Amino acid sequence: MPDDLKTLPEGGEVRETRLADALSERYLAYALSTIMSRSLPDVRDGLKPVHRRLLWAMHQLRLDPAAGFKKCARVVGDVIGKYHPHGDAAVYEALVRLAQDFAARYPLVEGQGNFGNIDGDNAAAMRYTEARLTEVAQALLQGIDEDAVDFRPTYDGEEQEPVVLPAAFPNLLANGASGIAVGMATSIPPHNAGEVCAAALELIRSPQATTAELLRHMPGPDFPTGGILVEPPEAIAEAYATGRGGFRLRARWQVEKGRHGTWQVVVTEIPYQVAKAKLVEQIAQLMEERKLPLLGDVRDESTDAVRLVLEPKSRAVDPAVMMETLFRATALESRFSLNMNVLDAERTPRVMGLREVLRAWLDHRHVVLKRRTEHRLAAIARRLEILDGYLVVYLNLDEVIRIVREEDEPKAELMKAFSLTEAQAEAVLNMRLRALRKLEEMEIRREHKRLSAEQRKLQALMRSEAKRWEAIAEELEATRARFGEGALGRRRTEIGRAPAPVALEGDHFVEREPITVILSQKGWIRAQKGHLPEDAELRFKEGDALHGLVHAETTDRIVLFGSNGRSYTLRADAIPRGRGDGQPVRLMVDLGNEDEIVALFVHREGARRLVAASDGKGFVVKGEDLLAERRTGKQVLAVEPPARAVVCAPADGDTVATIGENRKLLLFPLEQVPEMARGRGVQLQSFRDGGLADAKVFWRKDGLSWRLGERVRVETDLAYWRGNRAGAGKAPPSGFPRSNRFGG
Predict the structure, then answer these.
(1) Could you say which of 3.40.30.10, 3.40.47.10, 2.120.10.90, 2.40.40.20 is the CATH number of the domain covering 604-744?
(2) What residues does the record give for site: Transition state stabilizer (predicted)?
C-alpha cells in the first residue's frame, strides 16, 4: 500500500474490495433507485414520484380547482426544495406534461399561459406560466387527509410525503405512462375513464371475469389526439392478457371534393405523441426526395383544430392508394407499444395484464376505504365522548357550576363526581357560557343522534366485506358519471378494423389523367385532355365525322371491335394526344382495308358484351376475353363472308332487343344467349330477307329506348314484341329510326 494511503484522517478506513464487486454493488443501488424512485409508475395511483410530489405540493399550496392560480415557479420551487432534490427543468417539464390536453387524456393540472402545443413547441418559462389542480387531480387526492395512505419522511427528514395517493380515479389506465429505467421500461397508452370504470365494475360483479369479458367494456386505448386504431381484435386481446403488445394507430382523414373533379385529403387527427410540425417537415422532405410520387403538395391549415391538407399529383390518383403510401412512409401511422411494467403494492416491478392492473387498483381502493372508515370511526368516537360529557353537564348544571366556582381542582372533582374522562372534563371546563343555553343542548343531542347513526352504519360496513365492495361500486359509478360522460368522457379514438392489404404496384405510381378518346368514321383516332361533353365541337378532316367518343384515363385499356369479328387493345396513354387529326387506326392495329371499327369502349373488370354478326348469330363474351396482347388482335366472333360483325354492345340488363334490316323487332330474355369466349354463337333472330342491323341489352322494367335525332324515346309496353331467341320479329313502334339502329 502506498505511504500516502497509510496516513488516514481520524475515523477513516480503507477496505480492500474487488473492482467488479464495488461496481456491481453501486450499479445495483443506482438501478433500484431509478426503477423505484424515478421511472416506473405505481399500479395503485399510476404516478411516478415526481408527479405525485407535484400534486402533493400543489395540494399543500391549496391550489384546488376553485382556487386561484399560482406561478409554476412557486410550485417547482416547493417540489425541489421539500420533496424532489432534482433539477428544476425536469420538474417543470413533468408539470407541463400534466397540463397538456394533447399529451394527457385527463390533464391533472390546469395551466394558464403558454404550455406548448401539438406542433412540438416548448412551454414558456415557469416564471410566466401559472397552474392549479384539476378535478381529476382532486379525485386522486380525495381522502388523503383522512389517514387513507401511508406517509414517509422526505429526503431531509423535515417534511412528510405520501407513499401513494388514494386514487379515486383510475389514473394508470386513463392517462397511461411511459418511462425507461435500468434494464426495463414501461409503456401504457391512455384509455377512456368511463370504460375503465365499467371494466372495474365488471370485475367487482364477477371476480373471475376473463380479459375478453373486460374488453367488452374497454375495447382499447383512447388517445387524447384521436386517430383510428387499426390493430386486429385478437392482437388487442392478446396484448391485454399478457401485458405486452402494441397498437397501430392511423391519422383520421377524409376527402374534400373541389371544382371540376378535383379533390384533396384533409387530415383532422394525427397519431398520439407525433409533433405536427415535424410530421409536415417529414412529408415535405420525402416529397423533395421523390419518395411520395402520388402527392403533389402538403399544407398546414390548422388553428385550434388539426387540419393538414394533402393535394394529389393528379385528380386521377386513388385517394386510398395515396394515403397508403403516406401511412407506410410517414408518421401518419405509428405504433404505440404496450408494456404494463409497474410497481405493485409491495413496490416490486413486474409486468401485469389488464385484469391484474384493475384488481390491484380495486384492492387499493378497498384498503383506502377501510382506512378512511377507521379514521372516521375514531373521529366519531372522540366527538361522541365529548358530547356525552356535555350532556352530563346539562343534566347536572348547578352542581357543575358549583364545582367550577368553589373547588381548587375542578377538573379532578368533575371526573370524580360524574365519572368523566380526562378529555370530557377538559371539554366541559373549556365550554363557553353561551353554550349553556337550552338550544345548544338540543343541538348537541341532535348531533349525538346523527353521529351515533353514522357510527352504526360505518361499523356495519367494517364488519361486511360485501358492503365495502358495494360502496366501492357506488364510488366507481359516481366516477364514471363524473369523468366518463360529456365532452371530456367522449371516446376520441375510433376502434377500426385492420386495413385490408393494399398492393402498391407500379401502375399505382403512374399519373392518372382523364382523357377523351375520339374515333372518326374514316378510322382516325386521337385523345384529348379531360372529359369532353358528347356534344363538344370537334374538328375532323374534310369529309370525315365522329364515329365514337369515350371517356377514359391514361391508365385504361381501350378495346376496338372490328367488323371482321376481331378485337384489338390499345393502351390509352399510347393514343396520340393533342388537337390534331390523330393517327389512322390501321397504323396501330392490323385491321384490313375492307374492315371497319364497329365499337370503341374502355375495358372494365367484370363487364360483359353482346357480340353479333349480320347473319343474326351471336353470343355474350366476358370483357377479359376481348383483350388482345398483339397488334393482330384476337378472333372472337367467327364471321363467314359475306356476313360481317355489326354489334358489340354492353350486356348489362335482362332482355335482348334485335332489329333486322327487314325492319323487324324482336325481344327475348338474355338468359337464352350463351356466354362464350369465341365462336359463331347462336341464332339471335331469323330473317327471310337481309340480316341483323343492330342489337342491344336493356332492363325490361326500364323499357326499350332509342335515339331519334336529339331526343330519346322510351317504349314500356313491350308485350307485342316479346318472343324467343331466333324468332322473326314484328314491325317496330312508330317513330323508330329509319336507320334501323337504336342509337339513331
Answers:
(1) 2.120.10.90
(2) 127
